[in-house]
Amino acid sequence: xxxxxxxxxxxxxxxxxxxxxxxxxxxxxxxxxxxxxxxxxxxxxxxxxxxxxxxxxxxxxxxxxxxxxxxxxxxxxxxxxxxxxxxxxxxxxxxxxxxxxxxxxxxxxxxxxxxxxxxxxxxxxxxxxxxxxxxxxxxxxxxxxxxxxxxxxxxxxxxxxxxxxxxxxxxxxxxxxxxxxxxxxxxxxxxxxxxxxxxxxxxxxxxxxxxxxxxxxxxxxxxxxxxxxxxxxxxxxxxxxxxxxxxxxxxxxxxxxxxxxxxxxxxxxxxxxxxxxxxxxxxxxxxxxxxxxxxxxxxxxxxxxxxxxxxxxxxxxxxxxxxxxxxxxxxxxxxxxxxxxxxxxxxxxxxxxxxxxxxxxxxxxxxxxxxxxxxxxxxxxxxxxxxxxxxxxxxxxxxxxxxxxxxxxxxxxxxxxxxxxxxxxxxxxxxxxxxxxxxxxxxxxxxxxxxxxxxxxxxxxxxxxxxxxxxxxxxxxxxxxxxxxxxx
Length: 488
Prior knowledge:
The chain has helices at 23-37, 48-61, 77-84, 96-102, 120-128, 139-148, 178-188, 207-225, 253-267, 284-287, 305-309, 422-431, 471-477, and strands spanning 4-9, 12-17, 43-47, 65-70, 90-93, 111-114, 133-136, 153-159, 173-174, 191-196, 232-234, 277-280, 291-304, 318-324, 345-346, 360-365, 374-381, 389-392, 415-421, 438-439, 451-452. The protein is an alpha/beta fold. Helix 6 (139-148) runs parallel beside helix 7 and helix 8 (207-225) runs parallel beside helix 9. 42% of the residues are buried.
C-alpha cells in the first residue's frame, strides 16, 4: 500500500497520496485489503481531483454560464462540498431532500428549486427556505405560486425538443403557449424573470442549443415589451460528454460549447444584456467520471450465447452469466436514465486480458432473482470466476440514491473511499478555506460511517505477508459456489 495521509472534507475522510494515481489502482488496493478481511461488499472510489478538473473545464469553455448542479444526480457530501466551495456554482433541487443537502452549504440565492407539479406543501417548503428562484411550466402552476409564494422569482420552462429520447427534454410548456403565460404573469403581478429549456441528455445535434437560445431571445423581447424584468436564461442540462470514445455519435462537449457561445454572443451580447444571469443544470458532467464502482462475482453459470442475445444465430457458442453483489435496485438503477449503460472490466489484470486471448460474451446480473435486476445485459470479457472483482467506471450519475427501491431489504450502501494527490489537496484547501467545508484530522471528530478510508484497514497486515491468512483460508474465500438458477 502506497503511503497516504488522511484529511477531512466535512466529516468524510479523504486519502491524500503524494503522487497522482488512477481510480483503478486505488480500487485494487481497497479490494486486496477487503479480501484479507473477508469483506465482500461492493464499494465506490471517488477521485476528488476529477471534480476540480471538471470545474476548471466548465469555466474555461463556458465562461458566461454559472452551473447549478443537479443535486438529484448524486448528493454525495464531498461532491456537494467541493462544488459549493466555488462561488459561481449553484444547485438545482427538485425535492425537499435535495434542499436539505445543500441548505447548510450555500445561501438560498444559489439555489434553483424546480418541481414538475407544484403543490401547496412544496411551495410552502420553498417559502420557508427563502428560495429565491423557482421554475415552473404551466399556467396552473403560475397561479398556484402567485397564491402561496407570490414573492418568488420565477423561471418558465419551455419545451424545445419534445421528440428527444430523453423524456425530460419534453418537460415544459410548448413554445407557442409561452407568450400567454408571460402575459398572465404580468397580470398577476408576480416576478417572472427568466426562461429555461432542456435539449435532452446525449445531444447529437449541437444546433439544437442555437435554435433554443434564439427562441428564448424572442420570448425575452416579448416579456420585456409586456413589462417583465427578464434577467435569467437557463440552458438546462445534458452536459455529460466530457470523455467520448471515438465511435460515439454524440456531440462532444467542446462542439456543444462552441454552439452555445456562438448563440449567446449573437442573441444575448453582453453589451445589450449587461445584467443577464446565464445558468445551466449539469449533473453527470461533474458526477459521472468522479466515481468508480467495484463489485464482486458471487455466482456464475455457463449458458448458450443465444440465450444471452436472444438470437438463434448465436446458438452453439459458449457464454456466461455472472451474478454480482450489487444490482438494479441499488447502483445500477442508473440504467433507467437515458444514455446510461454501465460497462465493466476485470479489476485485476490477468494474462488473458488482451485482444489475442479468448473472450466470451455474457450478461451480468444483480443479487436478486428479479428479471429486471441486470447490471450489464451484454459483456465481452475473458472467462471470469467466482470471487473475482469487476470495476465499473463513470458510475457517479444517478447511482447513489436508489436504495429506497429495495423496500424492507436491509442492504447497506456501498462504502465510498475518497482520494486525491497532494497538488489536488492544496487546490481543495484553497477552495474550501471555510472551516465548515474542511476539517483537520481530529481524534474526537465524529466520522460518517457511510464513508471509508485506508485507516479502516490500519490493523491489516500487508497482503504480501503470508502469515496473514493460510492458503486453505485464502482458497476458501475464492471457492466456487453453487450457481443460481436464473434460467428455468
